Amino acid sequence: MSSLTNYWQSLKPQEQTLLSIAGVIFVIFFFVMAIYRPLNSAVDSAKQESEKQQELLQFVQQSVVQIKAKGSNVQAASSGNVTQVVNRTRSRYQIEISRMQPSGDGLRLNIDSVPFNQLLAWLDEIVHQHGLTISNIELSLDPKPGHVRVSRIVLE
Known about the structure:
Blueprint: H1 2-10, H2 13-71, H3 82-90, E1 97-103, E2 106-115, H4 116-128, E3 134-141, E4 147-155
Antiparallel strand pairs: 1-2, 2-4, 3-4
């Protein structure tokens, strides 16, 4: 440490001023590059993700309203229980069910990743053509564009 102070004192006043200014500029540069920019990028990413989630929520809410509106026009329930209807119809829409669990007179399903439009078409068929009802559904956005994850859907 003493060698550093000896070096500092051996410099001319102009050199000391120049090094002081350079040190301040370096500290500001370090602050901007190491702290400010990463935080700013994280905030922007969070805003974009929030906007995507809001768009998905609005789309799902509109789709649920449409499905419920059409639900009153169900003609007749098809033969077979809920499990049979699900197993018969899911392959047509390439729905891969990761978990299927009976729940009272209903069925609880988990689906890892599915194109949202295929999911809606499948749900539309099982509600309108087979007379099932959706009592609960929880969706989340999948990393693949246009895909969602169904963490829980209860069909009765």
